Amino acid sequence: MTSPPNDPNDPRATQRLAWARAALREPGLLLERASTDAGFRSYWRSVGVEPTRIVMDSPPDKEDVRPWLRLRDLLESGGVRVPKVLARDVGAGFLLLEDLGRDTFLQVIDAGNADALFDAALAQLLKIQRIVPPADLPAYDAALLLRELRLFDEWFCEQHLGLALTDAERSTLAAAYRFLIDAALAQPQVLVHRDFMPRNLMPAADGPAVLDFQDAVRGPIAYDPLSLFKDAFLSWPEARVSDWLDRYHDRARAAGLPVPDRRRFRHDAEMIGAQRHLKVIGIFARLNHRDGKPKYLADAPRFFDYLAPVLPRHPQLDGLHRFIEARVLPAIAATATADR
Questions:
Q1: If exposure means fewest CB atoms within 10 Å of the residue's CB, which of 42, 169, 210, 246 is most exposed?
Q2: What CA–CA distance (Å, rounded) separates 40 from 89?
Q3: Which CATH number, 3.50.4.10, 3.30.200.20, 3.10.520.10, 3.30.2020.30, labels domain 11-98?
């Protein structure tokens, strides 16, 4: 359980508050929780000073703040709207940021404004994809793709559902993973945010501002647009998603990005989408069982809904489709019944 933001009995809270007061030269300042993160970072809004500011708390022993700063600077150099850093103590893991408000795109987007908001989001995404990835930036290589896919069988199937997988089922999953990995590696490679979705976009006059970019890699060009439209926390009618993917494709080609023809791009988007959907299902299970954050599991069914129309269209994924239908979905139903 998180202690109160200004708890004198919590050494980290005391250190955070003292640093914020010194950085803003406001000895009476207090902090309130601004938002949490799926990782170890936390965000705090100043109280008692105008304009308000945000303190990012990234405990150095758990989540080094330097990758975030490095990617922030790289994105800003490419014209991407990112949060402004007003003060920093890298060793302690504290950053003072501009306050971009309380709502992300996730809170403000609806059926009426989605076209306009996604158009603005794509403008930022195209800037990201035009940035040449640094030579030492990690690649979305076969090893990383496989590690992510294995989250599905290890954390969701085995840990969460309690399934004991047979050797034949493990072989089936391995074959599907290999196909998805090969498809990802065959795509044109660009700078990939890895979590480009409404929750990580903030309304801003010169934005939207892009958040949570510290895990960026060099990887498949279809990854980020697919993540934007097949969101973890809200779903859209398939016809609208199709139109938005076409809009991205047209704008990417006009921007000179290495997108393939439309038919191939759609195939690539489905394949990298399947990889991401399986990964996120596994991550949500891990957040629950390892990190004590159960709320994310409520959105796991959304990703099975994303997979449902895609898997039958690709014979190479027939085994994965049958495994989900025969083993995973019945186990989910049984778990739901037992929890009632």
A1: 246
A2: 17
A3: 3.30.200.20
